[in-house]
Write a structure and sequence with these properties.
Layout: H1 4-16, E1 22-28, E2 33-39, E3 45-49, E4 54-56, E5 61-63, H2 65-76, E6 80-85, H3 97-104, E7 107-111, H4 114-124, E8 140-142, E9 147-150, E10 153-159, E11 168-172, E12 175-177, H5 199-209, E13 217-219, E14 235-237, H6 238-244, H7 254-265, H8 274-281
Length: 305
């Protein structure tokens, strides 16, 4: 079936090959998260994708050590931050978006279906009406096929649900930043058992992404270093995924994938930071408002997930 949005994304990628975007990645081994700074070499405009605020769960302490490395790079490279992008409301790390925005500027954006995620987890955490479920914690909500610019570079947002209802991939020039949808080919695909996730929907989103041109550079949000591989990695291509992804290479049927994914997900524990991360990330990276004593608190729902 024809997909006009994918055709538009492919056209952006083809045009972008003449002047590839520059990508600098910062990898946080504590959460296995890759934060990408993508920039337009012609204008020095840049975007930060999937940032990390360091968080020590036993003590509840936060740190900006990881984010400060991004700030240092941006300033030393004389980049101008136009966008701070989130591919989804992460369950494994807390976003540093508010801190980075304060230091560097930029428009904070996420997929429009964040409102769905806010509704689901608003109930999980029993949040009252002070928590808005309309996405207003973000400055722009991207729908499927929404276009934008990074300096002189064309960009497009693709809705790729399945891992969560709100997952987005961002095609920026010749590259695509695909969040948790896929991992490196030797590791496979994202889980689909979080509230609102669905393995069949994930398969269809992946297949949609893999119709992009084979040489398209894909930048991932995580790497867990598959057995036998010595180094972390976060860049691959559409062609490499189609030929070699251990879960969803060409020839794997939708039913086969769903059976594998659901069986695998049933064996996985929850990410160690899911409860603090989700509470903060559905608020655009902001912690809850201070209580009467001036302290901020996160909830720990019992037997909810």
């Amino acid at each position: 079936m024809a997909d006009a949005i994918i055709d538009q994304a492919a056209a952006i990628i083809e045009r972008g090959k003449s002047a590839p975007v520059v990508v600098k990645t910062f990898f946080d081994e504590d959460t296995f998260t890759a934060t990408h700074v993508v920039s337009d070499p012609a204008t020095s405009k840049a975007a930060i994708i999937d940032s990390v605020l360091d968080f020590d769960a036993p003590s509840g302490r936060t740190s900006t050590k990881s984010a400060d490395l991004v700030v240092e790079y941006v300033k030393n490279a004389n980049l101008d931050i136009e966008w701070i992008l989130e591919t989804h409301a992460h369950a494994d790390h807390i976003s540093a978006a508010p801190y980075l925005q304060e230091r560097l500027g930029g428009t904070l954006a996420i997929g429009a279906e964040i409102t769905h995620v806010q509704g689901v987890f608003g109930k999980v955490f029993n949040l009252d009406d002070r928590f808005k479920r309309d996405g207003s914690q973000f400055e722009r909500l991207f729908g499927d096929g929404a276009t934008f610019k990074l300096g002189s570079v064309d960009a497009l947002a693709l809705h790729v649900p399945g891992h969560t209802p709100a997952d987005m991939a961002f095609v920026i020039g010749d590259a695509a930043f695909i969040g948790d949808t896929l991992f490196m080919p030797d590791y496979g695909t994202a889980r689909a058992d979080f509230p609102g996730g669905d393995a069949r929907t994930l398969f269809r989103s992946i297949k949609r992404l893999l119709t992009l041109p084979g040489e398209t550079r894909l930048f991932l949000c995580h790497d867990y270093k598959a057995p036998g591989r010595d180094v972390f990695a976060w860049e691959t291509t559409v062609a490499a995924q189609r030929s070699g992804n251990v879960h969803v290479h060409d020839g794997v049927s939708e039913d086969e994938f769903v059976a594998m994914r659901e069986a695998r997900d049933a064996t996985l524990g929850m990410p160690k930071l899911i409860l603090p991360s989700i509470q903060v990330n559905i608020r655009g990276g902001h912690f809850p408002e201070p209580e009467a004593n001036g302290s901020r608190y996160l909830k720990l729902p019992v037997d909810a997930l």
